[in-house]
UniProtKB/TrEMBL annotation:
<dbReference type="Pfam" id="PF02423">
    <property type="entry name" value="OCD_Mu_crystall"/>
</dbReference>
<dbReference type="InterPro" id="IPR003462">
    <property type="entry name" value="ODC_Mu_crystall"/>
</dbReference>
<keyword id="KW-0560">Oxidoreductase</keyword>
<dbReference type="GO" id="GO:0047127">
    <property type="term" value="F:thiomorpholine-carboxylate dehydrogenase activity"/>
</dbReference>
<protein>
    <submittedName>
        <fullName>Ornithine cyclodeaminase</fullName>
        <ecNumber>1.5.1.25</ecNumber>
    </submittedName>
</protein>
<dbReference type="GO" id="GO:0005737">
    <property type="term" value="C:cytoplasm"/>
</dbReference>
<dbReference type="InterPro" id="IPR023401">
    <property type="entry name" value="ODC_N"/>
</dbReference>
<dbReference type="InterPro" id="IPR036291">
    <property type="entry name" value="NAD(P)-bd_dom_sf"/>
</dbReference>
């Protein structure tokens, strides 16, 4: 029995946006039809402080493929002050038939690729046709990944970038412009300008104070709220703005437990699962004037789909080390 090991560098080299978003779409249909089981994560706090470290095990089973995965996420907010990653994760993919561990994958690249791909799929599903301008709130690695993936895949003509640190926004705009020669890329010091002039807005920050309020919304806007870590004190969208939007999520049960954007709403929100829209079971946007919001939380069945995709490509291209964990 051998297990394939993939580094984040391996994942970057193997990934194709078009290939994986197609696989994600099929995965969401399978999930909507009951072919995938997702267990709500059970957080283990290592420190009782609000910013204390936590271990978050996440598991899912794909009945049709005969696969299950476990992702172990270590969420350590205090690492930011030390210049270390606030989150680290590893994904293990197993055969349901034999229990064999098929692969172990570092979670850094996989999580970024999965998150941006889900945002792309949500945007294709929910945003107005003909959208041309993307607004990015944040200037970190995940914001960079989203900007390039969405602008290329959706052929967007304009990109606006805002960050609390204007120097970060300027540097991010310069780097992204080099990768997107056909897109007009500009940094701005006004988050209001980003929202007012964008058809699609992605929030990609670990903010504990809401960045977008109801006054920034306009008819037809689509928002992807994808930056908050899985803790209730993190939120990017305020309550009034959330109530003004048609809400969508990966898994409604888990979103209500894990999302700070949803936890601070006074009234129980109505959430449509994105898989229900992708499968055709429920409508997404009703009119061109609707304001839609995809509240991304990241769930294990998406990690399973990404791990399976990467390991199949790695096997075909002979990428990654193979280790005999048991003779």
């Amino acid at each position: 029995m051998t297990t394939r090991l993939l580094t984040s560098s391996d994942c970057w080299s193997l990934f194709s946006t078009d290939e994986f978003t197609h696989e994600l779409e099929m995965t969401l249909v399978q999930y909507a039809n009951g072919g995938i089981m997702e267990a709500p994560p059970q957080r283990v706090m290592l420190d009782s402080a609000p910013q204390g470290a936590a271990i978050v095990p996440m598991t899912a089973t794909d009945i049709t493929k005969g696969l299950f995965c476990t992702k172990v996420l270590v969420d350590h907010p205090q690492n930011r002050a030390k210049g270390l990653p606030a989150q680290r994760s590893t994904i293990a993919l197993f055969s349901s038939q034999t229990g064999e561990c098929l692969g172990l994958i570092d979670g850094y690249a996989l999580t970024q690729l999965r998150t941006a791909s889900m945002t792309l799929l949500a945007t294709r599903t929910l945003a107005n046709r003909g959208a041309q301008t993307l607004g990015i709130i944040g200037a970190g690695a995940l914001a960079h990944r989203h900007a390039i993936m969405l602008c290329k895949a959706l052929e967007l003509s304009q990109l606006l970038i805002w960050s609390r640190n204007p120097e970060h926004a300027t540097a991010s705009a310069r780097n992204i412009a080099e990768a997107l020669p056909g897109t007009a890329v500009r940094a701005t010091d006004s988050i209001h300008e980003v929202c007012a002039h964008s058809d699609i807005v992605c929030t990609l920050t670990p903010s504990e104070t809401p960045l977008i309020d109801a006054s920034m919304l306009h008819p037809g806007l689509h928002i992807n709220a994808a930056g908050s870590p899985p803790r209730p004190q993190f939120r990017e969208i305020d309550e009034d703005a959330m109530e003004a939007c048609h809400l969508f999520a990966d898994d409604a049960r888990i979103a209500l437990r894990e999302s700070g954007n949803l936890a601070h709403m006074s009234n129980p929100p109505h959430i449509t699962e994105l898989a229900e829209v992708v499968s055709g079971a429920k409508p997404g946007r009703h009119t061109a004037h609707d304001i839609t919001l995809y509240n991304s939380i990241g769930v294990a069945y998406e990690d399973l789909a990404c791990a399976d995709y990467l390991l199949r490509k790695a096997a075909a291209q002979h990428v990654g080390a193979r280790v005999a964990l048991r003779p």
